[in-house]
Model the fold of this input.
Amino acid sequence: MKLLVIGGGTAGTTAALFARKENREAEIVLASREKVPEYSKCALPYALSGEVDFQDIIYREEEWYSRTAKVELRLGWEAVGGDLEERKIEFRTPNGKEREEYFDSLIIATGSKPKALPIPIEGEVFYFNEMSHAENLMRKALASDEALIVGGGLIGIEVAEALLNLGLGVTVVELLPWILPNLLDRDFSATVEKWLEEEGLEIIKGIGVESISEDDGRKIVRLKNGEERKVDFVVISVGISPEVSLAKSLGIETGETGGISVDEYMKTNVEEVYAAGDCVETLDLSSKRKVISGSGSVAFRQGIVAGVNSVGGEALYRGSPLTRCTSIFGKEIASVGLTEFLAQTLGIKYVKQKVKGKNLPEYLPGDDVHFKLLVEKRTGRIIGAQGLGRGSSWRANLISLAISKDMTVDDLFLLETCYSPKISEVYDVVTRKFLDTQTYYLPHYVFDKSSLLHHLFQYSLFFFSFYYGIRCRRQAVLQYGYHLADFYIFDFFWITLYANRCLSSLRVRESPIGVRAMYPCLSFILERTPWQNSIKCLHVRRLHSLSLSASSFNDCIILLTCTPLLSLGKSIHISTSALIGPMGITNPFTPTFSMGISLSGGSSCRSLSIWSKVMHPPSVA
Amino acid sequence: MKLLVIGGGTAGTTAALFARKENREAEIVLASREKVPEYSKCALPYALSGEVDFQDIIYREEEWYSRTAKVELRLGWEAVGGDLEERKIEFRTPNGKEREEYFDSLIIATGSKPKALPIPIEGEVFYFNEMSHAENLMRKALASDEALIVGGGLIGIEVAEALLNLGLGVTVVELLPWILPNLLDRDFSATVEKWLEEEGLEIIKGIGVESISEDDGRKIVRLKNGEERKVDFVVISVGISPEVSLAKSLGIETGETGGISVDEYMKTNVEEVYAAGDCVETLDLSSKRKVISGSGSVAFRQGIVAGVNSVGGEALYRGSPLTRCTSIFGKEIASVGLTEFLAQTLGIKYVKQKVKGKNLPEYLPGDDVHFKLLVEKRTGRIIGAQGLGRGSSWRANLISLAISKDMTVDDLFLLETCYSPKISEVYDVVTRKFLDTQTYYLPHYVFDKSSLLHHLFQYSLFFFSFYYGIRCRRQAVLQYGYHLADFYIFDFFWITLYANRCLSSLRVRESPIGVRAMYPCLSFILERTPWQNSIKCLHVRRLHSLSLSASSFNDCIILLTCTPLLSLGKSIHISTSALIGPMGITNPFTPTFSMGISLSGGSSCRSLSIWSKVMHPPSVA
Ligand SMILES: Cc1cc2nc3c(=O)[nH]c(=O)nc-3n(C[C@H](O)[C@H](O)[C@H](O)COP(=O)(O)OP(=O)(O)OC[C@H]3O[C@@H](n4cnc5c(N)ncnc54)[C@H](O)[C@@H]3O)c2cc1C
Ligand SMILES: Cc1cc2nc3c(=O)[nH]c(=O)nc-3n(C[C@H](O)[C@H](O)[C@H](O)COP(=O)(O)OP(=O)(O)OC[C@H]3O[C@@H](n4cnc5c(N)ncnc54)[C@H](O)[C@@H]3O)c2cc1C
Done:
């Protein structure tokens, strides 16, 4: 079989090499428009500043591919068209000739292209997306004094740092009111701005560029407010868009983001045609929407999956937590998942925890570290984090794992981290806030407690709260786990709970007289069990208040069966059985299983309309 | 209410302070035998070497406790007895007088004491467990030239480093054949030994000390092999044992390890009496056995839980992944969970992944990093890791989270970590091995395929494999997820699967003729679904081979229902329904739910004994 990979960047090269690992026999051709084999794009700013050589960031020599990996590398080959039915791709080769390649499997890894600035531009401006761009820019920079960068994103700022290191005067113009808006919110960004300004960077924020004109070999950048800057050259770095022209011409589907649509195998809509990297759209695991990741760490992992699947193996790519980090003048910046700004834009309600601390105990010289964690309000699910200072990228990695596993804020509570004075604080900022404050609450509902219907409502809410995790109230941050529900019924009955190990505690309490005085105060039988590591069946009679704490919704399964044994004056029979499955937000397990309430009103509640809902698992033919 | 805390170390002080956070009203008394308020024990080696002042490692001034925290701190108070029925504790106070304190809640946090060496010892030797020990040792060291340390554990080695830094000649004698045996296996330890020997440390391994005698103010240490060393002083650091003399005298239960037995609330066998820190036995989450943690990170978290619960709050401590780290001559060492040595000792079968790499890409100057991951063979569960070099403690933190959540090796596969050249490699050693090799296999069973009973056996094995996760075969490391099972039946039937998001793929394959030629080769209907984020019902007809991949056992729930539609020549009716729950090793969910196989033999299999087992959830009265 023959695998053809188009694009020799991170995704394409990784795909080719992992396809080779997976399949020793396959013929593998890796074609790239660029003149050099895979290099570290992410290191281009350091090549620009002269800290590393352009040659050094090329990962392997051209010969290595054929000799060691048995991959035919075709440099300077640009795919210009083809026919997927016929399984062929047409190339323009370095000598200008057209060539065709046939394939059994195809991987498209054409990466991204810099977005253009939709304003009048006179003469040449610079972009920074390829080695050739960086080389051109370096030549220009070494002969210049002043530069202006349009765009204060990650690449814009890294280029700014490089140019500052080369001794140039540098100005960054960012349309939004703060820099690094994809990584940081305004508060954290302000700290980074301070670092950069101390190094001499001029930052102009919250204003757009109107035009770029030329005068006497120099550039005049006119801002929307009428101000002008005269500089030697301009770098445009206002984001990327997926390079999908080839894919589209081949009839491969793209999604709303403009990127190629792929499934979890990194397969496109066409059989045996895969795609990976900046050219595809990726599931953002925090918001569950599709994005263009623009990230090497994503391209690398998607490349593995596409490569493995393309030659008969099996691997799945399930989405990205979207980690990002950089180092600015030796200071670490990291981010994962959503920022507050993005969560607000997407309408996701969140709670945040913000901590400032040190990476080492006070008695040792350490670094300031800042950490912010975003938690989805409705579910407690961790959806993002930002960090500044030493260890931030590792904190983001921890949160990356948490996001990948749909963990809630409770899953991090009391997480044990390594401690030794020269290495860490006994409680690192990554979990510190949970311990330090008692102000973190998930929302809860308040009910009118006056009617029978209320109880039913609350009763159904009880399930509802399991189901969606919305009625989660943490009475104090130090309390381990959510209070999944508090509910009370005036009659006694039995509850059987089958819970897996994540149900960490069960406490049955008598209500304080006064608050719940309307219910006869009967005693209850309580078998207090440590739920961890055991499945327990609990029979509670004459229940007044039941609160369940689960350590995490993610792996929580509870089978609850209530049957009233006796009906007192106010007769009500409630018989219900529910299986409450894992609380994955996008995938509540419950609907598949029987769950619901069936009620038969007794004599004293004749007015009660019977509210009943029983769902059974679909029966099999 | 009045809370009395005995022991002013990490656990006791943390308990008192978090009790205060939890309860603004409670009267809190914190009594400690030592003369100073809480200090960083872990920093004592750095105080010994003079890098920090003894004064600086005291966290808070004495007045702070009463003024800010409203905690009555009683320094120099030693608890000597009491009566738990009467809720009183007797103290010896600094002026020698006896005093009694009554309490509503009690927390015992008496820490540990150094183990003694069971050999003849002449004159004074040094221990290193308290500030006073360190101060004494410092005085001695400053007036000496040569020291010998018995015990090459964490504390022994940290003291050795400090004494080397003070300019002394230092010898460490370790009974086991390598140093730091609680943290590292022999391979990793060898690297640390090299570092230490380069700094001038003499290490004598695999040999015990026979006696310590005195001669002319110096010490003569005689080894078991007859060798002798003459040094100025000897430090004994051969481990700790829990300080439980008070607890025992009060009638509080201790466990097999000698530590106080506590439940998840950190409560002892006596109501309202809690215990935390080095004096209790802790659940090791990797091996599920009880241990004495001897670790500040554990004491701190247990202190929180005991403190909160003791004054009416609710928190749970669920066990420790046992993180440990240190820095030796600026080099990071970290460990979490089991070592190979310990796993072998406990009879736990494991697979290891060992990687050597760098913390940064090759083109930048970076550190060598070593990383080893241990995975339980039977289940794929992560049970330990060791690391050397930069970032090791954070890698251990990541594994700590994985162990806390019972994750398998697959949960780390393709984990996205932050990437920027000056900060990290695109694939850090923590996940690298998964990507790099194809040699990692979990065991699988091989069957004799000759009889009908075989199928039944295999069929039941199918469930069995879900149930225990034992029939997990990874065909290649790059394949995402376990193959939970492959099974085939000669007749066609329906399968309905309800799976939550963790069931990552389902592939139904036709068997290669030859291997499975005995079964008529019928076609099948396959609905290939991306299982993630959806619950799917799959109807498979004429099934021959079904393999399921789940990303993780931990949150895997599968409801499987098979009903044969037709019986061909060899009639067999299999009707079964199983709910397979989370695969937590200690807590398979399944038994609670209906699971099993009911068979009715058809005409052609009259000889078949009907094997049937149906378990229903216990029905409610
Ligand atoms: C300056 C800079 C710094 C960065 N820093 C980081 C960082 O620190 N961390 C991080 O994770 N990510 C970083 N990134 C992003 C990261 O480099 C990209 O996400 C990653 O390179 C994407 O990989 P890819 O294979 O999808 O695309 P690319 O690496 O862009 O490769 C695509 C290749 O396909 C070729 N190609 C396109 N069309 C064709 C065609 N028709 N025929 C043949 N070949 C074609 C292109 O020429 C290119 O060589 C940075 C990017 C830049 C520019
Ligand atoms: C040199 C050294 C280095 C270490 N380095 C690390 C490290 O890097 N990381 C890490 O996690 N852990 C480290 N540890 C371990 C850590 O210090 C302990 O695990 C932790 O201090 C245990 O806390 P504790 O409160 O249980 O006990 P302790 O901190 O020992 O406190 C117990 C206190 O109770 C007092 N006490 C005992 N009996 C009585 C009584 N009857 N009445 C009144 N008071 C009493 C004791 O005097 C003592 O003050 C180190 C330990 C040492 C000695």
